[in-house]
Amino acid sequence: MNSPVLQALEERRTTNLYDASHSIDDAQIHELVRLATKAPTSFNLQNWRFIAVRTPDAKARLRALAWDQAKVTDASVTFIVCGQLADHSVLPERLAPAVEAGFIPPALLAVLEGAAKGLYAGQPQLQHDEAIRSATFGASALMMAAQAMGWGSTPMIGFDGPAVAQAFGLADNEVPALLVAVGAALPENWPQKPRRPVEQVLELV
Ligand SMILES: Cc1cc2nc3c(=O)[nH]c(=O)nc-3n(C[C@H](O)[C@H](O)[C@H](O)COP(=O)(O)O)c2cc1C
Questions:
Q1: Which of 60, 63, 124, 187 is at a distance of 20 to 30 A from 3, taking alpha carbons?
Q2: Region 64-89: what's the mean pLDDT?
């Protein structure tokens, strides 16, 4: 296997036990999030925000709202991956760099904004679904980046969403989709869990 991406996919597993003495510095956190934002979003909405909880005090506050899961404090950093309710009105700003770069014509921008408005305006369920979808893609990319950098990761839904939103100052349009812990995995962690056979989950049409 000589592709680092395939290797990261093959080898990633959920980390339960972290080396609490390991730290990841803010430049490395920045790089993880930069790579996470390479993930796709609908219309390139980029409707996400990553809150890197990395001080002992902030991690303890988060752990208390996350089923007291030790990995929240033992990991070097635990991200609150937030999705933002899909909103067509942000598109001109989000697509401005592509317009300035010249490969999205200004006229197309108006078409895209209109399409996004038609899809999301007045559709709260779809706006929320898109927030979760974008955050999940971002979290997945973040975990793969962490894997490629030699760290373990843990996606988590075991937390009190409304309490986390309040404690960490999420905006009204932000949903705490999941937590992702990242840090140095201890050797005692379980191996990768076996998967269902592909034949059970693949339908060829
Ligand atoms: C949406 C989601 C929520 C999860 N929540 C938790 C959690 O709160 N705590 C935890 O220890 N693991 C959590 N996991 C990890 C899963 O248990 C794990 O991914 C699954 O058992 C497969 O194992 P693997 O990731 O090692 O392949 C979560 C995973 C996902 C995708």
A1: 187
A2: 98
